[in-house]
Amino acid sequence: MGGRGRSRTQRKHFRQSRDNVWKRSRSDSQQDDENTNTTKNPNPHHNWEPFATQNPSFDEYYKEQGIVSPEEWDAFMEVLRRPLPAAFRINSSSQFCGDIRSQLENDFMKCLQAEAADGSEVDGVGPLLWYPENLAWQSNFSRMQLRKNQTLERFHEFLKLENEIGNITRQEAVSMVPPLFLDVCPDHFVLDMCAAPGSKTFQLLEMIYHSIDPGSLPSGLVIANDVDVQRCNLLIHQTKRMCTANLIVTNHEAQHFPSCHLNKNRADAFENGVAMEPSVSQLLFDRVLCDVPCSGDGTLRKAPDIWRKWNVGMGNGLHGLQVQIGMRGLSLLKVGGRMVYSTCSMNPVENEAVVAEILRRCGGSVELLDVSSELPQLVRRPGLKKWKVRDKGNWLASYKDVSKFCPAGIIPSMFPSGKNYVDNADKNHGTVLGQTQDDVGDGNSANGFEPKNDPESLTYDLDEEVSTFPLERCMRIVPHDQNTGAFFIAVLAKLSPLPGIIPSMFPSGKNYVDNADKNHGTVLGQTQDDVGDGNSANGFEPKNDPEALTYDLDEEVSTFPLERCMRIVPHDQNTGAFFIAVLAKLSPLPAIQKKPASLRRQLNSSNDSIPDKLANEMKEEDINGSEINSADVTEEQVPEAASDADLMGSELEEAALDTDPSKIYEENEPEETEDPVDKETGSKAGGGKRKLQIQGKWRGVDPVVFFTNNAIVDSIKIFYGIDESFAFSGHLVTRNSDTDHVKRIYYVSKSVKDVLELNFKRGQQLKITSIGLKMFERQSAKECLLSPCAFRISSEGLPLLLPRITKQILEASPVDFKHLLQYKTIKFADFVDAEFGEKASKLMLGCCVVVLRKDDRSSSDLPQVDASTIAIGCWRGRTNISVMVTAIDCREMLERLSVRMENGNGPVLLETEPSIVESEEPNTNDGETKEDAETMELATVG
Ligand SMILES: C[S@@+](CC[C@H](N)C(=O)[O-])C[C@H]1O[C@@H](n2cnc3c(N)ncnc32)[C@H](O)[C@@H]1O
């Protein structure tokens, strides 16, 4: 088909799997009635059961933090309790982007405005003014309005179809903001650290494809990473609609995202004794998006279950991880690059405190940018300079308060000054560095880690600290400013390499540096691999700063009894050297507590938030060698199905967020070896049992292999007459080491190829879940064995290949093209244009491409292809041509063509019926029932 973002079969499960978060289960409502106040949903249009939209701890916390002024509080809460309007983006890389925008502007918006002027109670639909080029829209309709109003019903149908096809993406309005501040260009290497379910990754990809001609690829790439393998599948599902060869999906803990760099002196930089200058010798990024896991209270309007779950421990418990992820992001960012830190939480401990700690650790090497002049129409509030930390029902204004008792998981960096006032020898200071997510608790310090029974602990100092960092440059979007969810965004620029020396390396462990000091450093964002040989090589260069050459050589002495450690030295007893320290645990650790199982469950089920236990378990299993398989997702994690009607109004959710991961397993299709087929009988040898797959050191993950089977590549090139200038060599990849029997062949851009080569040289550090664009797929049906080429062009690969194909391609008149979309299979003799039928019969048996002829030109032998060309993959059978496109794709394309025709800028579709149109056999491509034409076993081959 002719463009990125065309319909793909992978969207087939969206409708059946959306979770209606405002519709509660019986057990939910019973539980809430017992535990929490419930209020009637304030939206009069909706008939929902009462849902708990109150949480006293939430009120108390945010009133005290001063997120909004006391005068605004009621308005803030009122909007927070209302369902969220539906927002969606037009995919700018879709071939029909302009058509869709103009349909919204000129048809739906005007019709609805006219109806509103006539006194109808219809709410408007309109573009989000702060989003460039009218590409993002918001609407707010109830089901009742939908049923009563014809224009709305038509609009609903339009949204459903275009979403299914991939021409629009449902995404919460505020979630569209962070990528806009990244300022991405087509040549950028972009890392999306916590990327699933991928709505922002999709936007980033659109940005690197901006102004790139179809058939060309940008020189940049996006690496989208997520720790949760199931969520990675959602991401793959979501981003497949981009049909991109410039994406790698990885599955790592973001805070430990691997480094990949080649030492210039390493032997592997040589090939056949000749020094090779690799295109990419270090995996660093121009842009990093750090959309971290968070407590998610900014999504209360679309996930009202958070009202019930919310507690202060959620934010406190994530602060440490958020800092670590932010630091890792900055260490992977190129000098001169930009990183956006964002959360869908309103909590300053997850937001300003994290940004301040990052700035503190990075010193002057990182700057918090003032972006107030960017996106001026977006209403946002400046970041806070002061806030408090809450724990065990107490308000703490500084870490000074912490030393007086034993709070769980409270660390200095959560406070505005970030200062640790506690002396080394002090017995009560705490840290969460040794804690895992599971240790964090609910802020009530229960479950095994009791606070010490110390009367002093009840006194605290409420002197307010104020941050010295320019945190007002951060942005907080609050719901009642422009009827959205809430979001927090900070834009950081890396000015110089991060410093590599941290206070804990010194005997006192003290950080003498003032908040605003620019030269202190940390290696928290670095992995072992970055640290280098002490000569600050490998990307962490010493600053070229004369000041850096002066140091204070006053010796520090530790106050701890370190003489109790032992060092064994070689010449004492003719041995090697060793160091030993023996530690005893005298009482519960001050900063660690267990989280109740019920809370763990709650956290795990929250949409975007909280790195869940499941993810950690999956990761461990993976490392330990069990096979990862989305089919392992249990019922508990699978959201309920929702009806089509839920697409509209407040239930309209970000598409991928509510997609059932277990139902899109085919997104991350396991690359089983294609069993050899007996040419005579068509039967396959072998039982098809899937072996444990290994990708380098990653067990349970399909390998990534450069496809170098020249016999297959040549057969494909010859069959489709693919232009020699098209770079195949080194750009084809499979997920199967048995290259004779691969099922799918993927295409990767030059940038992805370079990263892949670097990754191989570095021993496959990256755990790759998905890579490149599915370009060719083996047809395994018996009839297909008669075709000279076993591989068909996949619909994702078609836009890129289209300008390069010289054989098996035909131009159809508008009427024949329309008939193909309508009837799916047409016999050669039944085409209105007899010449087309004649030419079709002369094609080789197998896959072919049919292009819609422009204007009323007569057909040419080789169709002229450009950005506006519309094409579909077909199959030339013995007596007919069948489309290899799903029914919904056909429907949408017919719709687009008729809208173009109405506007007078489309082909003239003559309304002549074909004289005879009947397929020899029932068409397998009837997507509503068979769903997936892409994997069809070609029963209709004539
Ligand atoms: C806020 S969501 C990201 C939303 C995403 N950026 C989008 O726009 O669709 C946070 C994601 O972080 C992931 N996550 C949690 N802990 C992580 C970690 N340590 N490393 C990487 N990803 C993590 C979660 O699985 C979740 O998908």
Précis, in short:
The chain is of the alpha+beta class and 942 residues long.
Structure, described:
The protein has 942 residues and is of the alpha+beta class. Among the domains are: 179-259 and 285-498, Rossmann fold; 693-778, no CATH class; 808-942, no CATH class. Helix content is 25%, strand content 14%. It has 26 helices and 32 strands. Strands 5, 6, 7, 10, 11, 12, 13, 16, 17 and 25 form a 10-stranded mixed sheet that branches. Strands 22-23-24-26-27 form a 5-stranded antiparallel sheet, with no helix packed on it. Helix 10 links the parallel strand 6 (221-225) and strand 7 (247-250). Helix 12 packs parallel to helix 13. The two termini are 23 Å apart. Bound molecules: S-adenosylmethionine (SAM). S-adenosylmethionine binds at residues 175, 194-200, 226-228, 231, 253-255, 291, 293, 608, 611, 615. It is found in: Nucleus.
